[in-house]
Amino acid sequence: MHTRDPNDNPFFPGPADIRNCVLSSAILAPSPHNTQPWKIKLERTERILISIDRDRLIPGCDPIGRQTFISTGAFLENLDITAGSLGYRADLDLFPEGWPDPRTVPDTPIARIDLVRDGRCIPDPLSTQIPIRHTNRRVFSTREVSLHSTGQITESYEYSLVPFGFSNDRDFIRTTAGFAADAMDIELADKTRRNETLQYFRFTDEEVLKSADGIGLAQSGYGRISRFLIGKFFLSRKKATTSPSLFSGMATKKTRAQVEGSGGIGWLSTKSDHRVDQVRAGRAFQRIHLKATSLGIALQPITQPLADYAEMSDLRSALYEYLGIPDTHTVQMLFRLGYAPTVPPSPRRNLQMFLKL
Ligand SMILES: Cc1cc2nc3c(=O)[nH]c(=O)nc-3n(C[C@H](O)[C@H](O)[C@H](O)COP(=O)(O)O)c2cc1C
After folding, report:
1. Which of 6, 16, 171, 313 is 20 to 30 A (C-alpha) from 195?
2. The whole model's pTM is what?
3. Are residues 111 and 170 in the same domain?
């Protein structure tokens, strides 16, 4: 039982409130373009409501919000793991106000969670990996990720509803790099999608400091001086905006190099593509990334080839065929695995900025 200073705003948890701890951990979840698209509402002394911040959607790149729901699944997994490791059970109800439509993003809660003190909770060893897990965009070493390691990864989550595919074959990796590079080219050929990417791309450290979201160069492994030189001379915001082919050409080349430099390619699929499948895939993906982190394996999602807009459909079908996934199923995540030095954490907005009154 937590006491609260009556002068506190009841919507803002104090440091002693368990919800502060679990939510601080939940927002470390991955999200497309690091949009952090979650809204949090607190009720009573133990209840949390999570919904999607529709101002943070990227409808060009993610037209049906599938990636946003995956990222909300990852958020809920972090929350659940952290609550358990602090001796609280997270009683989680998905879609408490009714099941949403699979193509539009509702304003109603995605999850209602009641935190209940429970002496039977056993800490999940993955909880220690939550602050360490990061998307790593370096070119990884070509050291193969072994089937033994991927076996350990699959044991970390409930496999049956979100099966895990994997290959460490070099030809397979090279072919996937071709799909990924072509998909990046398609993604950035459209002005709306390119602008969404530019909106969340941080060209300089100053831009990173200003916004606490988006993707900067540090997570690609560039040091401070390289970042300064790239942002100033090679790829400034002005250059990328006025010369779109320069930006997309560099992104396409980088994507091919990244994927070719991998120790293995993984993917997660589901039989249907309802919102619950996407949340489930996000929870599975988060456990996989946390487990990979604990094994010293770096990971980067490569999700452009899976995009739901029409211009990607031919490439997406060809990729499904290559992976051996029937076109009635949905590949929810595609990612590369490998070995590389760690990268600095990506920014997060302050917890209070997620709270809605
Ligand atoms: C659904 C989804 C799709 C993503 N797609 C990509 C991607 O195509 N390329 C990439 O580099 N990162 C991708 N990411 C990773 C995010 O950019 C990353 O999670 C975000 O920048 C926050 O960084 P962090 O993972 O280091 O905390 C994706 C993440 C999610 C959840």
Report:
1. 313
2. 0.95
3. no
